[in-house]
Amino acid sequence: MSGEFEIRREVEVPASPEDVWEAVATASGNAAWLFPVSEIEGRVGATNADGTTVTAWDPPNHFAVRTEGEGGWFNAIEFTIEGREGGTALVRYAHSGIFVEDWDNQYDAVNQHTDFYLHTLGQYLQHFNGRGATFVGDVPGGIMAPAASAEPDGFSRLRGALGLDGEVAEGDSVQLASQGVDGVVDYVSPNFLGVRTDDALYRFFGRNAFGMPVGMVVHVFTDGADSDATKAKWQEWLNGVYA
User: pLDDT tier at 1 (50, 70, 90 boundaries)?
Assistant: First the structure.
């Protein structure tokens, strides 16, 4: 059964409106916290290569895009950005559209993903602001674990492989020598996990909660990072976790 949805959030981030704008309204900025998008043309009415149409363009305060399809289907994203004292900014985020089927499950998934993505935006702006990012993973799913990861224990198996059995809290250390990871947990929920190192953000998605395989992406903030080699290394690791 299809139906409309709307998700809204307000988050305060440690950056100026101009820095937030660069993160949400440019292709290079999106790769640092979300996933790569096509180049965004800076004018209302422009249609980008990915089919999105710019519906608001007022730097650095208001940006929105919308995609439309058959039968009234649409998907729309909007950011409203306001400067705050102390060098921070308030970001009002809205995501609306139509789910064609499995409404409850899709809404739950998008709702939880929203919180994780916006947290990652804040982590990027706080720790890596302005640094170029190499996105590792396929768009939009990331690096996908084997089908066995879709089982109910799929995400707990991944957390165990990261040395995070039992209770996990933000600030807990994560060390995985085989993958060159030495960092801290920056986000934890039953279905999502974020790990931050000195030069990367690792995002793990427990999509088994929504009937899909576990996935992950990496945002690497070092020059010359090899996306294909990094992806292959993590794909091999994920395959081993669920062998």
Answer: low
